[in-house]
Amino acid sequence: MIPWATFTDPEVAHVGLNETEATAKKTPFEITRYALGQLDRAIVDDTTSGFIKILTPPGQDRILGVTIVGEHAADLLVEFVLAMKHGIGLKGIFGAVHSYPTLAEANKYAAGEWRRRHAPTRVLALAERYLAWRRGS
What we know:
The chain is α+β, with helices and mostly antiparallel strands. Helices cover 43% and strands 20% of the residues. It has helices spanning 19-24, 40-45, 73-85, 90-95, 105-117, 121-135, and strands at 4-6, 11-16, 30-35, 51-56, 65-70. It has a 5-stranded antiparallel sheet, with helices on one face.
């Protein structure tokens, strides 16, 4: 879990496994991506190129590896390094309060992308039917 960064334009930072390493180790994974072009701070600073890519085991929020390409990628990576070292998953990052508008919000939004894809659809459908019944719809 040693992070590395290449200070080019844009910066590239990485920690943990990438797809090639995970495939070679026969570690099953899924990828979550977040484009920095969607981030308010990146839009204001005109630094919208780049992304965050997170590898997790299928259906789990445990972080196997992260690659960030973009403005201040090395700085953004620190939150993921800390999460991996202390066993904090994407749910923990998503639940953390981030200042607005900052580039660090990208980490939360990336975790939110994972969360959206893993929302408990059956429970949500049941809650929707219950609330409709309560409203008399």
